[in-house]
């Protein structure tokens, strides 16, 4: 029997501000709470497609929700068709510009559409898009902000609890020597088999990134992430060419076109698109095809619950970035077993809300 395609009836958006178990201190800012927008696509036959967006600032959810209201006005009453919707909505917002909060709204809507479709099919998202649910290698990206070396080493050890075999450290201290000291302190404390990634969060100039990167070569880092401004692809290419340690970028790719430009420039050794910036599930699939064609390893940026499904269908799947920021408001938070993310085998993405927690953290 053919699958019944659900019809979109309404969109509900709610904002929450969830305390982080471990504050995140980067070269850009320190975050102690996670502003998150919950999206519910109510369809016929009681199907609810769900997604969430990490909004970076408490004022952002209401802006994104305004765009979702406009999307609902345009598309309610239509059968769910995320690829078609994506094209039509990009056209709708072409003059306004499909960037920033508009792009985030489009991505969240797209994820919720795919969740609804795969629920209607009675299949996990990974299976619905042509793969199989399977465990995905995960690194713990909670905490490990800009802190003193021994404190960072203590936290890195603590982040291995639960079976992790990889962690990520934030860099971008005032001096190269300070960065080197913390990397060495953490690396000394971790078992040799544990992978250690490092993220500069766009803190450096190209010249300084090459200088610091060369100092870090040979220190056992799996990659150096976003050393300079995210869209300086020529500068990133100079850095990648100069360093032995792989360069990772991609969380700020604004759609697959930006990723194609970066790859053409030779800007990096690895890529890690972000679900809400690359264009949701639809955008991710396009990015995964680019990575496969280029033969370059592709990881994820946050959103582990959905990204795990997508990495299962990514030919050059590398690492899943695990953060627990949404865990308090999820009915079933993601599990990590022996360093691997366990992908939900429920129909759809497996996302459902813990409504008691949602009420507790709701932004009025």
UniProtKB/TrEMBL annotation:
InterPro entries, per the entry: Enolase-like_C_sf (IPR036849), Enolase-like_N (IPR029017), Enolase_C-like (IPR029065), Mandel_Rmase/mucon_lact_enz_CS (IPR018110), Mandelate_racemase_C (IPR013342), Mandelate_racemase_N_dom (IPR013341), RHMD-like (IPR046945)
Gene Ontology MF terms: hydro-lyase activity; magnesium ion binding
Cofactor(s) recorded in Swiss-Prot or TrEMBL: Mg(2+)
Superkingdom, natural source: Bacteria
One family name in Pfam for this protein: MR_MLE_C
One Gene Ontology biological process: amino acid catabolic process
UniProt KW keywords: Magnesium, Metal-binding
Domain Mandelate racemase/muconate lactonizing enzyme C-terminal residues, every copy: 149-246
Protein name, entry field: Mandelate racemase/muconate lactonizing protein
Taxonomic source organism: Acidisphaera rubrifaciens HS-AP3
């Amino acid at each position: 029997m053919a699958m019944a395609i659900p019809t979109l009836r309404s969109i509900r958006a709610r904002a929450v501000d969830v305390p982080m178990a471990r504050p995140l201190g980067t070269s850009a800012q320190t975050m102690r709470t996670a502003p998150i927008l919950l999206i519910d696509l109510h369809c016929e036959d009681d199907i609810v497609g769900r997604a969430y967006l990490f909004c970076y600032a408490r004022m952002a959810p209401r802006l994104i929700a305004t765009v979702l209201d406009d999307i609902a006005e345009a598309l309610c009453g239509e059968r769910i068709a995320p690829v078609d919707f994506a094209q039509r909505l990009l056209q709708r917002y072409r003059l306004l510009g499909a960037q920033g909060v508009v792009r985030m709204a489009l991505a969240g809507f797209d994820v919720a559409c795919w969740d609804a479709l795969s629920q209607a099919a009675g299949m996990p998202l990974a299976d619905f898009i042509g793969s199989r649910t399977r465990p995905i290698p995960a690194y713990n990206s909670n905490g490990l902000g800009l802190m003193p070396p021994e404190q960072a080493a203590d936290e890195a050890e603590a982040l291995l609890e639960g079976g992790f075999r990889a962690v990520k450290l934030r860099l971008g201290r005032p001096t190269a020597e300070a960065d080197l000291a913390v990397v060495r302190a953490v690396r000394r404390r971790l078992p040799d088999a544990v992978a250690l990634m490092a993220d500069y969060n766009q803190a450096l100039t190209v010249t300084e990134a090459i200088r610091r990167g060369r100092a870090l070569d040979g220190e056992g880092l799996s990659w150096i992430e976003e050393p300079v401004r995210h869209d300086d692809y020529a500068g990133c290419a100079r850095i990648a060419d100069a360093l032995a340690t792989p360069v990772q970028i991609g969380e700020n790719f604004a759609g697959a076109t930006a990723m194609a430009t970066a790859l053409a420039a030779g800007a990096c050794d690895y890529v890690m698109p972000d679900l809400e910036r690359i264009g949701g599930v639809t955008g991710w699939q396009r990015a995964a095809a680019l990575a496969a064609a280029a033969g370059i390893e592709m990881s994820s940026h946050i959103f582990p619950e959905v990204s795990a499904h997508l990495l299962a269908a990514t030919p050059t799947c590398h690492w899943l970035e695990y953060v627990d920021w949404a865990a308090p408001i999820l009915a079933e938070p993601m599990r990590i077993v022996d360093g691997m993310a366990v992908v939900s085998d429920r129909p759809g993405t497996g996302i459902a809300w813990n409504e008691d927690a949602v009420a507790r953290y709701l932004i009025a």
